[in-house]
Design brief:
Elements (H helix, E strand, L loop, with lengths): L4 H12 L9 E11 L2 E5 L7 E4 L15 E5 L12 E6 L3 H5 L32 H5 L2
Parallel strand pairs: 3-5
Antiparallel strand pairs: 1-2, 1-4, 2-3, 4-5
């Protein structure tokens, strides 16, 4: 039997706006890759080693997490257990623009520019015609 639609709407409403503050032990992390079975490898701004976090059942099959997206991780959720998990996902950043305005947003997660950085000595070929064969061969 499928989950009621009210559960889906409640989960979407919960993640639509950022909280006023993060609880103790919570931090914003960037998703590096999906490890499978609702496990994700994430990176925190201050820690270079990737963390393995679990997606709780209330988010499963309702809200999808893409690589490079941001989530809120609770690192104290699995502190007293002996396992490979480093934390649990407590919220998913859906409206990144609103979240970036919050005081707790890490300065290490700068906005990605949409333009590629081209070097000065290499000319971009975007939007240009390929070179004709007649001018290169010298026939």
């Amino acid at each position: 039997m499928a989950r009621p639609k009210r559960n889906l709407l409640a989960t979407a409403q919960e993640t639509s706006s950022p909280p006023t503050s993060l609880d103790e032990g919570q931090a914003i992390a960037r998703v590096r890759k999906a490890e499978g079975k609702n496990l994700y490898s994430v990176e925190l701004p201050a820690i270079t080693k990737p963390l393995l976090v679990e997606l709780p059942s209330r988010f499963r099959s309702q809200i999808w997490i893409k690589r490079g997206g941001y989530i809120v991780v609770d690192a104290t959720a699995f502190g007293n257990r002996d396992n490979k998990l480093d934390g649990e996902i407590v919220n998913i950043v859906r409206d990144e623009r609103e979240w970036r305005k919050q005081s707790y947003w890490p300065s290490e997660f700068v906005k990605r520019s949409s333009q590629l950085d081209d070097s000065d000595d290499e000319e971009s070929r975007v939007g240009k015609m390929p070179p004709s064969e007649g001018s290169e061969s010298g026939d």
